[in-house]
């Protein structure tokens, strides 16, 4: 599933939008600034202008070579998406369940999704990984992680 | 002479049982991660950087040095055994390394690689000891305009990291600058781009962005490519024969010299020098027809150049604060975690620490040679670990690494967001290293810019009226032109060589 898209032009547009965003922030800072020629607003303004100029080049320059972008098949894409969902979920679960339990659940899911192992085998790998992380980072290196609201 | 004494005191600090253990562990895990197919030295260091942050500064930095050399060596191992160059600079190693491996001579090729890396790396560190303090002494005379000019010089590196579009590299650099501006402004401490968020007021954490763009993205790429275990044939003995050494020694020397001196130029990456060394070796050879079919000199020369360039890169890094390659940019981030800001005052303010680091680079190099040759079989076995097991482990390391720097889950969230962004950047060929480089250099550049403008009451001519500043700016312009030419040449060579043979990860 190879398709040609004007990705660089979209990138150029995003760059222009970011540039406008930077310039707006520079203007806000400029109004807050008491006096002086340069200050905290100077670089945001310069970077904003640079982003707008470079973005315009990408957007309007003719004859730029477009390369084909090949996306993975749907199944693989879903697998990647699931992994990231698990990882974001871990971020939300850590304050609730604590580091160890959330790591156990999330790694269980990751072993299942990435490796395609059976649930039981994935659970064994997850337990081993969580135990290893506990021993190295919590017991040995004394890192403090959130314990969760239930503990 | 003073440098030698300081180096000896650095050794005294570095050679303790626990520090030696850290160097050994660093070299081993660096090689381990570097050996994993598709993970280049940059990704390897990015993944392992968080592990070092939980250690004492000296131990952490020693481990980091071990990881750096280990990851570089690991990248060469996959290039030779599996024909998978972790970085573009390893492509020339594949040209003759893989044919040697197919002939059952992968062992000697790995042995020569280790020796070439050790020789060139050690020579490079000697060059560092000799030149860096002198350069730093000169640079002590610099004022804010010269520092600003220096940062402009550093940005010429972006050209060599630009991939297929210089405009895209500069957009990414500007984006990096923008990200670095989030937080409190250096002049008035006014909040910028924070929108009332307390997490954003403290600014974005560099480690989280690095973990996201390199480590998490790499795992996503691995899932996409459905990486699996890969079997390697018979290696043969890893100890090269006398004849191999005899043929490789001049190649190592020539490659080392090319790599070291060109590596001093900020715009000249290891990819450029390794290709130049390979091409020069082929030109010098009496049997150029053997190149590409398994000539041991074809492995020795680019590997020596690659490592000499990496070591030479430490000179502008330590003396001027300019990272000349992606792994060094990550290493710079590692040093900054320990409160070290590489640049002219580094040798003045953190003398003991710097010399301990330099001593640990020697130790890291030696550890690599001692440990890696006998353990080649182990690295080969490790390539058999299924990706389905490795990927979740790397993901969990990423969470810990992003969290531990500030004990803040917001940093984990940032790492994940940049992981997704990194994958999108990879798909659409937007180079991420300029982003990191500008994120690191941005605050320093802004500070020196604001100070310079205050000195001149807002007159930008201050940058061209001071001779050193003007000279550095002119050098930047010249380097920019040279870099563009060299990068075009290298891109052409990479295209020639990779069209049918490899996938550069």
TrEMBL record, chain A:
Residues that span the membrane, as ranges: 12-30, 42-60, 81-111, 117-137
Swiss-Prot/TrEMBL keywords: Membrane, Transmembrane, Transmembrane helix
Pfam families tied to this protein: TctB
Keyword Transport set for record: no
Signal sequence annotation: none
Alphabetical list of InterPro entries matching this protein: DUF1468 (IPR009936)
Superkingdom, natural source: Bacteria
All copies of domain DUF1468, residue ranges: 11-146
Name of the protein in question: Tricarboxylic transport membrane protein
Species per Swiss-Prot/TrEMBL record: Brevibacillus fulvus
From TrEMBL, chain B:
Domain DUF112: 20-437
Top-level taxon of origin: Bacteria
Protein name (Swiss-Prot/TrEMBL): Tricarboxylic transport membrane protein
Keyword DNA damage attached: no
Residues that span the membrane, as ranges: 20-49, 61-82, 109-135, 147-163, 169-190, 202-220, 257-278, 328-347, 353-378, 385-403, 409-425, 432-450, 470-487
Presence of the UniProt keyword Oxidoreductase in the record: no
InterPro entries in the record: DUF112_TM (IPR002823)
Keywords, in A-Z order: Membrane, Transmembrane, Transmembrane helix
One protein family per Pfam: TctA
């Amino acid at each position: 599933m190879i398709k040609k898209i004007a990705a660089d032009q979209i990138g150029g547009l995003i760059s222009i939008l970011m540039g406008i965003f930077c310039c707006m922030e520079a203007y806000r800072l400029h109004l807050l600034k008491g006096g002086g020629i340069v200050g905290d607003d100077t670089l945001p303004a310069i970077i904003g202008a640079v982003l707008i100029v470079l973005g315009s080049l990408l957007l309007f320059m003719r004859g730029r070579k477009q390369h084909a972008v090949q996306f993975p098949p749907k199944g693989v894409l879903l697998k990647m998406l699931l992994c990231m969902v698990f990882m974001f979920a871990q971020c939300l679960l850590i304050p609730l369940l604590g580091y160890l339990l959330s790591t156990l659940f999330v790694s269980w899911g990751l072993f299942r999704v990435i490796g395609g192992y059976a649930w039981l085998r994935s659970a064994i790998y997850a337990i081993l990984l969580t135990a290893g992380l506990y021993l190295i980072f919590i017991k040995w290196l004394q890192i403090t992680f959130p314990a969760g609201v239930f503990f | 002479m003073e440098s030698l004494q300081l180096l000896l005191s650095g050794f005294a600090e570095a050679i303790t049982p626990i520090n030696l253990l850290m160097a050994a562990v660093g070299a081993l895990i660096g090689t381990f991660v570097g050996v994993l197919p598709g993970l280049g030295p940059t990704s390897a260091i990015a993944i392992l950087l968080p592990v070092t942050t939980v250690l004492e500064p000296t131990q952490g930095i020693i481990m980091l040095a071990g990881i750096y050399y280990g990851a570089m060596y690991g990248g060469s191992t996959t290039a030779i055994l599996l024909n998978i160059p972790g970085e573009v600079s390893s492509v020339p190693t594949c040209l003759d390394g893989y044919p040697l491996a197919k002939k059952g001579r992968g062992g000697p090729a790995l042995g020569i690689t280790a020796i070439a890396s050790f020789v060139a790396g050690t020579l490079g560190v000697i060059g560092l000891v000799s030149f860096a303090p002198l350069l730093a002494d000169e640079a002590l005379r610099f004022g804010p305009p010269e520092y600003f000019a220096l940062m402009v010089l550093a940005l010429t590196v972006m050209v060599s990291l630009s991939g297929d579009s210089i405009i895209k590299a500069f957009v990414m650099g500007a984006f990096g600058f923008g990200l670095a501006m989030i937080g409190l402004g250096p002049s008035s401490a006014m909040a910028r781009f924070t929108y009332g968020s307390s997490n954003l007021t403290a600014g974005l954490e560099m480690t989280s962005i690095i973990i996201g763009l390199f480590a998490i993205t790499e795992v996503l790429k691995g899932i996409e490519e459905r990486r699996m275990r890969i079997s390697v044939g018979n290696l043969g003995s890893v100890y090269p024969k006398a004849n191999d050494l005899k043929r490789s020694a001049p190649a190592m020397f020539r490659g080392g010299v090319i790599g070291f001196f060109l590596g001093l130029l900020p715009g000249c990456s290891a990819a450029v020098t390794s290709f130049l060394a390979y091409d020069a070796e082929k030109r010098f050879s009496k049997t150029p027809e053997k190149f590409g079919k398994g000539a041991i000199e074809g492995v020795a020369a680019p590997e020596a150049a690659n490592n000499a360039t990496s070591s030479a890169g430490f000179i502008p890094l330590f003396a001027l604060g300019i990272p000349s390659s992606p792994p060094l940019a990550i290493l710079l981030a590692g040093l900054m975690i320990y409160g070290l800001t590489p640049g002219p005052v580094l040798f003045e303010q953190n003398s003991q620490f710097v010399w301990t680091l330099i001593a640990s680079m020697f130790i890291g190099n030696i550890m690599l040679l001692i440990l890696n040759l006998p353990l080649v079989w182990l690295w080969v076995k490790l390539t058999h670990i299924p990706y389905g097991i490795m990927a979740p482990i790397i993901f969990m390391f990423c969470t810990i690494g992003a969290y531990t720097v500030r004990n803040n889950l917001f940093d984990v969230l940032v790492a994940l967001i940049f992981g997704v962004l990194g994958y999108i950047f990879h798909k659409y060929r937007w180079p991420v290293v300029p982003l990191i480089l500008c994120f690191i250099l941005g605050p320093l550049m802004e500070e020196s810019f604001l100070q310079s403008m205050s000195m001149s009451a807002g007159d930008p001519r201050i940058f061209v009226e001071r001779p050193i500043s003007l000279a550095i700016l002119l050098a930047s312009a010249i380097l920019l032109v040279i870099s563009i030419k060299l990068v075009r040449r290298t891109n052409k060579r990479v295209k020639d060589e990779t069209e049918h043979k490899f996938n550069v990860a």
